[in-house]
Write a structure and sequence with these properties.
binds zinc ion, two-stranded antiparallel sheet, globular, 195 residues, 7 helices, alpha/beta, five-stranded parallel beta sheet
Length: 195
């Protein structure tokens, strides 16, 4: 068994959540936030989601499908945003979770769009569209953690880990480990819960 994972997904992508459950040696919590937490106290909401849903999971898997975009609105994305916020939230009781974004097959070509010559540094950069039209801001912010003057992000500059569905299925616990290990890397000090 690997590190225990929690899965944040849109109901439209439930078949993929079920498929993860059928993989060998996957330790995950089969529960989802489906009721709003009735409070205006953000700290309370975060603690409540942690204790009632995320439990002792240390990695949150975020399924990136056709309905995961920030642009669909805060109301529509309430649950996945809160699940990711609680995952990024740390307190004296627990540290933040690692975040693993899995790009579902139907989204692959919308996210990876080849490469381009950078107008700033003149080098070639890959085009990876992790933004408000593909994911909620909790994921995009912590994937492209802002830094002044930066034009390209290497693996050490990102807190969120990104993988295609096929690569994930080939080595699920290897990818979960990679997201888990980010918790102790220097970039973990630059994450934001509510970007
Ligand atoms: Zn550049």
């Amino acid at each position: 068994m690997g590190h225990k994972a929690y899965i944040a997904f849109k109901t439209e992508d439930m078949a993929y959540k079920d498929a993860i459950g059928e993989l060998q040696n996957i330790d995950f919590i089969d529960k989802s936030l489906t009721e709003p937490i009735n409070s205006t106290d953000q700290e309370y909401i975060m603690q409540k989601i942690r204790s009632d849903y995320l439990y002792d999971s240390t990695v949150t898997i975020f399924l990136i499908g056709e309905y995961s975009a920030e642009n669909l609105g805060e109301y529509e994305q309430y649950y996945i945003k809160k699940e990711l916020q609680a995952s990024l939230y740390s307190s004296s009781m627990h540290s933040k979770s690692g975040i693993l974004g899995i790009v579902l097959p139907q989204m692959k070509s919308s996210i990876w769009q080849g490469s381009t010559t950078c107008w700033k540094c003149g080098k070639q950069h890959s085009i990876v569209k992790i933004n408000d039209s593909t994911v909620v801001s909790e994921f995009s912010y912590n994937y492209y953690i802002p830094e002044e003057g930066k034009c390209a992000w290497g693996e050490d500059d990102r807190y969120c880990v990104l993988v295609t569905w096929d690569d994930f299925v080939a080595d699920p616990n290897g990818w979960i480990d990679q997201a888990f290990d980010k918790r102790l890397e220097p970039i973990a000090s630059k994450t934001k819960v509510r970007p």
